[in-house]
Amino acid sequence: MFVFGDSYTQTGFNVNGTQPNPSNPMGNPPFPGWTASNGPNWVDFLTYTYNASYLQTYNLAYGGATVDSALVAPYMPTVVSLKSQVLDLFLPTYAHTAWTSQTALFAFWIGINDVGNSWWLNNATLYDAIFAEYDSLLEELYEVGARNFLFLAVPPVNRAPLTLQNGEEAVEGEGRVIVDWNDRLVVMSHAFQDRHDEKPSVFVHDTWQTFTSALDDPSVFPQTNGIRNTTGWCKVYENGTPDWYTYDEQCGIPVNEYFWLNNLHPTFPIHNATAASIVDYLDTMTLKS
């Protein structure tokens, strides 16, 4: 599995470090890596918890990434965009290594920062350009043999504390752009599939619905059943804690009982539920095919 994305996906993998192998299927850094979830993220859970067999995972995601830094600027100029993840990391390093079209899955979770950094502009032309670039990157991967693609929809980050604190107008405004992004993602993925004679397998996971369900009622998933706070976060926990279940009396509840670790990033339980949902979705789609 080759993975691309932003902070919801990153584990801090270095292409020049230890490579995935049977004793260490994600290579580097040590499990669960440098995540934004105060524990494993969805990539960790897919690789270690929900894998049906041995899975090697190359996680090229980078925190803060947008599709193309020239179109939507990230929070720091050093952030590695999706474009750079594909063109500068994957293609030179892994395009011609020992993977096959049949057994490699290319997974993408991108758009959170594109939306978050630009939604108030109300600029459809910008999103046209973003998806044209996104689409061109898929073609680059197709040309070297990629045939299995998994896309994760942008979750309802308009319900994160960062947006909640700006009021209902911001929540609704960003929410509309998230819906538009996810609609475009479906259109792009189907068009990408349809224009090739050797059709790739394309899967679009409704991550928006997974998050929405858990935010509405954490008990809907066994992985999120222990969450008690879905709207706030505790500043004592916001930069990570000594372990995944840390309790500080200033926060009232353990860190893993907050949906949000800080004002934008969720804790690991929803990542666990997301990974489980992806497996269920892929199983269902495989049965249909």
From TrEMBL:
Pfam families xref list: Lipase_GDSL (PF00657)
Keywords: Hydrolase
Source organism of this protein record: Lojkania enalia
Molecular function per GO: hydrolase activity, acting on ester bonds
CDD domains on file: fatty_acyltransferase_like
InterPro entries per record: GDSL, GDSL_Est/Lipase, SGNH_hydro_sf
Record's signal peptide: none
Designated name of the protein: Carbohydrate esterase family 16 protein
Organism placement in taxonomy: Eukaryota, Fungi, Dikarya, Ascomycota, Pezizomycotina
